[in-house]
User: Fold this.
Amino acid sequence: MSSRLTRSLWIGVGVLAAAVVAAAQGRGGNEAAGVERVVVAFNRAISERRIDDAAKLVADDAVQFAIRPAHAFTGPSNGAAPALTSDLEATWRTVVGVLSSAVRRYDRTVLRMDTRVDDRLAMVWATIRTETEPRDGAAPSITEFAEVYLLRGTEDGWQIVGTANSRPTR
Assistant:
């Protein structure tokens, strides 16, 4: 992907995010609690390794925005830029599978949320803390980072349609 196209995509994502925040300022207080329940339930399900329950909160077409790789060893080996998005459910199914064998405990806690709702579109800017206890006896690690959730309202409730985070590369 050319740098011009990549730059255009980032500008588009930024404009979308700014429009959601600007349009939703001070609106949707009653809906915000429902949106936040989805974010908390998703993180709790991941912590408890209940991936099928987490998947119920995610839209079929949901994406994970890869602002930067979560691990230093990921990405194309040919020097090309990694894909901007990946399938959100598939990503978490992989992560939970790896975590199940590699760690004794992985807890995701939502510390804070700033939520904006406008009609059937919501955005949550959350501070997430992860606590990871490896199976090999190594010291547990704690990481805090921002994670943004984009949600769509449906007849059945709110569904996560996209996430992005600032988690440090490992």
Notes: The mean pLDDT is 83. The two ends are 25 Å apart (CA to CA).
